[in-house]
Model the fold of this input.
Amino acid sequence: MSSTWNNRVSGAFRAGRCRKVVLPPPTWDIPYGWHTVSDQEEGRLDLVSMNEYRDPTFFWVVAMFNSITDPVSGYSAGDRIKIPDLKSYLDRWASYQI
Done:
């Protein structure tokens, strides 16, 4: 048996014996709007989250929805990023079973 397996149903990926990465749930049907990153927001997803959701702690929602792996340099001023409907996104995460 291989030490690496992929369970496409649960979205879990395990390599070796000690690493488990949980992939986010599918998001193709979640409604979203667009946001153009300002000069002040460059490198600050918390500011984008504050401006869109009135809460800076949801920066991770913006990062994950846009596949931004580096929240400091993964985007630039002038870039258009998707802003998912927060309730729909959080409901999807809450219902996502591993």
In short: The helical segments are 45-53, 59-65, 86-95. Residues 1-14 have pLDDT under 50 and may be disordered. Residues 11 and 23 are 5 Å apart (CA to CA).
